[in-house]
Amino acid sequence: MFAWGEIVLGGFLIILSGIFDILDGAVARASGTKTAFGGVLDSVCDRYADALIFSGIMYGSIYGSIMPATLFEIPVWLWCMISVIGSYLVSYTRARAEAAGTPPLNVGIAERSERMIILVIGAFTGYIAHAIVIVAVLTHITIIQRIMSAKESLE
């Protein structure tokens, strides 16, 4: 929807996706079918969903269905790439630190739910480009927070 310039509908679809994301885990827990593999699969599907959302916004910014095409003299598609990299590294930093022996690494100001809320607000207000910049900045702050926390736990 973002690629086609349907920004508000894109925001609603993020909300719908979030509802289903919450429900699938709740159903698995309630039915006693929760598994470690299910958690892995859920995380992988979340990364695909993130990539699709940012790809749609990138496409829309390049082909003119999302305005402005630049923000702070940087193309919105590049802000999207910075956001994708940050989003993936937020997850990777947590997984890698926990694999190295840290306790669950729940620190940071831009976990997936916060990022999606920022995008929804941006979509509903018409400030999707600004929301992307906020996500780009906050994801990289979160990465730094997680690296610092991992350093403290592992030294």
Total count of helical runs of at least 4 residues: 5
Regions with pLDDT < 50 over 5+ consecutive residues? none
Question: Which fold name is given in CATH as the topology?
Answer: Four Helix Bundle (Hemerythrin (Met), subunit A)
Mean pLDDT: 92
Oligomer: single chain
Work out the strand percent.
under 5%
The beta-strand count equals: 2
Main-sheet strand order equals: 1-2
Radius of gyration: 17 Å
Taken in chain order, the helices and strands follow as HHEEHHH
What structural class do the secondary elements suggest? mainly alpha
Separation, N- and C-terminal Cα atoms: 46 Å
Under CATH, the homologous superfamily reads: CDP-alcohol phosphotransferase transmembrane (TM) domain
List the helices and strands and how they pair.
Blueprint: H1 7-31, H2 36-62, E1 70-71, E2 74-75, H3 76-99, H4 112-125, H5 128-154
Antiparallel strand pairs: 1-2
How would you describe what is shown here?
With 155 residues, the protein is mostly helical. The chain has one domain (7-154): CDP-alcohol phosphotransferase transmembrane (TM) domain (Four Helix Bundle (Hemerythrin (Met), subunit A)). The chain contains 5 helices and 2 strands. The protein has a two-stranded antiparallel sheet with strand order 1-2. The termini are far apart.
